[in-house]
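Q: Can I see a sequence and its folded structure?
A: Here is a first one.
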Amino acid sequence: MLSCSRAALKRTCTLVSQCRHFSLYTAEHESLKDNLIKLIDKEINPYCDQWEKDKIFPAHKVFKLLGDSGYLGISKPVEYGGLGLDYSYEIAAAGAFASISCGALPMAIGVQVDMATPALTKYGSHHVKENFLRPTIAGDYVACLGVSEVGSGSDVSSIKSRAYIDGNEWVINGGKMWTTNGTQADWMCMLVNTNDNPNPHRSKSLICVPMKTKGVSVHRKINKLGMHASDTAEITMENVRVPLDNIIGQEGKGFQHQMNQFQNERIYAAAGALPAMDRAIQETIAYTSQRQAFGKSILDNQYVHYRLAELQTEVECLRALLDRCVEQHVAGEDITPQATMLKLKSGRLVREVADSCLQFWGGMGYTDDVVISRIWRDTRLMSIGGGADEVMLNVICKYMGIDPGSRK
């Protein structure tokens, strides 16, 4: 009962194709997406309910399956095992990953392809690309991203973890919080303080840390409201030694590298949220058209079908913003303000859609037996993870020149 009905999925695809006439997406994009959905339906979706109950999925098995098929390196360089396609194909795949019947796996996959590896791909040396990017693209390694800490979530500049140089090694102490893939990861893309520059934007670096290194430990696995099949961990590091060559880009440039990396994360998150909203609306239409109350279907009430029409209209507007961001990103433009707006609107709208739709399911919506309840609890993270709504507003205000700091 938790999987999206094929009829609802067909209606969603038809509506999206009618609304989207955008030259950036071609028959090749659709072919990639269709083939990935077929793989997901055969090899992943049949097991999602059990993985949700287990509160973990076999990341190495799933990622190897995707890596062997080329889906973990779509826009990554050919010389390191990627397909070398432009970023629009990555977003087409993100839409296909959203067909997985729980939100946990698309999120975990997103860490692998668009959160832990963009900076590595763009700024990393041949050494770190060969040792970390290549096996991650192949699905041999599971990656995680280490940015947030206890007391330092969306305020990235305030992280406390530190690394100092001893001979030809970095010695790292500290810890990371809310680490997706944390209990299964082979390596972490870790943001850490590496100098004493008083400017917190100039004191940090990104370092590749193998998770089996002495001193790295999983302090605890975190139970969450949603995304149950994804393992989330608190990681501690005590005198962890890694080679100096494991740095990504220049020393002291880690904050800037991570900010750039966030743009990929925000686009990927929105690309996954849109199909979830489409699914929520279409499944709600299917349910309310059959559910009878006071001599007519729930859907026949004007408020219900008007509200669903309003929500679908908002979804299509958001889809247009996503397309614009993708087009500009492919063209190499700075999309920081647009990607931030996209992240903000996606988080707010997916909450509105999921909550409004769940209401129309009545008591059934409050059970674990239907798809809408899983969508509701999984998508609530969108306004928190990857930068909370309030942080997105702060960034937008800075670009508009209306925050107090900009006006002084």
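Q: Show me another, different protein.
A: A second, unrelated one:
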Amino acid sequence: MAWCHSATRLLCSRLTISVIPPASFKFTTCRPIVTNVIRNKKHLFTNRVPLLQCCRLYQGDDATCLASDITKSSGLDTRKYLLSIGVNAGRIGQHSRSIFQQDEKEVQGIVSLLEKNGFTSDEIVALIEKNALLLMFDKHELQMRLSMFIRLGMKLSDIVKMSQLVLFSDLDIIVANIQLMQELLCASPKWISSLLKYKPQVFQNTCEFTHDEICDNIIMIRKLLLHHGCVEVENVLRQIMRDDYRLFRTTQSQVRLVVDFLMEQGITGEDLVYVIKRSANIFQSTPEQLRQRMMNLQEKLEITESEVLKFVIRYPRALGMNSKNLDKHIKFFDDRVIDVTYIIDFPYVLWVSVKKLEKRYKEQEDLGLFPTSTMHQILANMHTSTKDFNRKMDNFRKKKKDSERDAESDKKKSSAKSRRKT
């Protein structure tokens, strides 16, 4: 009996968990109380499973009515509606429970809003499956977001693919970042829409830096680039924003420390601009860490100090690579008896994961590329895009197949000729 009273308190407090007593336990006088609580408070719950668990303790018509009442409130109408327009419930994932408990009319209103903005039925289904929480938006705010994206020239298909980072971020922050890019980076709507699609995290503000501080950092880096002879400053700033925006969210004192270190190593002028442009991630490291990485490169690649400097200028990202990853790549070369100095000619292999290098090396080995190709060709294939690599391998397979077919044809002709002679 005491358990029944505590269960009632649990239900009243909107907790979505419940402690179920043994199956042999029978409700007596407390059954009406618990039944009443469940019926009257069911709209406060986001999880209907504990409520249905409670129903298992009931017997007869009471249990059937109660379970039916709870099920009606669990969003089955919304679920049926979403399934009717083609939504795959399994793709909604972890938010399915919250989505299905939305009022059906509100969900229909969001779908109608998307249709008015020009989305096709397939695009609406894809948008819901990718960003299901969209169905919980206020319609007015959703319309404001869609209007902003469309004004930037974004295609509806791009909005469908857009990350939740943008769709569900604070609208004021997104607008402020767009204005910042237009004013300080001279960014076009097309460039901004591309960034929204591929680098949505850029439009997030961290708690460490205010909007004004980010603006000040951009202005400071702009002056730095101009001072070292950079001509196309806006292009460089946009490239940094796209490739590693963290530079603009680094303290000015840290930026100056790294720049001073690079200048001490003899990297100045256009070389310094190139290093900043191509490897903004090095500003997350201290001068001591960068110095240690240069020493590691010199030791592992077995080159002189001046050669390391040339290598870093040519491939600045090597300065952002920690010693552990460098050791893995060196081991990959050593295990296959490949001279590590090839890395100097093909530094981009350092930025390909060892797992991918192993896979591509084996694939080329299985195809018989090694006897016919130089190591330069082998390594050049290692750091190409997946699309280019697959295309090259397909072309080689085709040539190999044609060669084998021609060889087989020549063999048959030779055999037939010898039979005629005999």
